Inverse folding.
């Protein structure tokens, strides 16, 4: 997939809104799942959480690599169906390798945890944790 390619993130819901985001060439060297914890509950059909989670994963991958600690925690969404998340990379990672790892994981996490309502997945170089509640 080249830098100009786009992927389609389909948000479940009444309107079936679609958001186009720029995809990045991802070359995460350590994209092996070291650990995973997946909430057995799936995201409810039609929930605003789908859209909030999509934006959350993008924010985590875009911001964590450029913090001094390679760590970022945030919340997306208001009172209804907010998504809470954090992302981190190992201290030895460069910002570009951190971003590559987090972008790869932010795409893979949907399938690793099968659209779970909460997930914590660790690759060798990075990890993402999201929930439907504050943690």
């Amino acid at each position: 997939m080249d830098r100009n390619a786009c992927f389609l993130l389909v948000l479940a819901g009444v309107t079936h809104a679609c958001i186009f985001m720029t995809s990045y060439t991802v070359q995460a060297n350590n994209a092996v799942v070291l650990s995973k914890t997946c909430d057995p509950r799936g995201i409810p059909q039609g929930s605003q959480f789908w859209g909030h989670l999509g934006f959350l994963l993008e924010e985590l991958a875009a911001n964590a690599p450029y913090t001094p600690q390679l760590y970022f925690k945030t919340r997306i969404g208001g009172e209804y169906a907010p998504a809470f998340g954090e992302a981190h990379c190992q201290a030895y990672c460069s910002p570009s390798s951190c971003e590559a790892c987090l972008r790869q994981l932010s795409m893979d996490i949907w399938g690793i945890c099968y659209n779970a309502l909460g997930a914590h997945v660790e690759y060798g170089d990075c990890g993402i944790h999201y929930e439907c509640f504050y943690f």
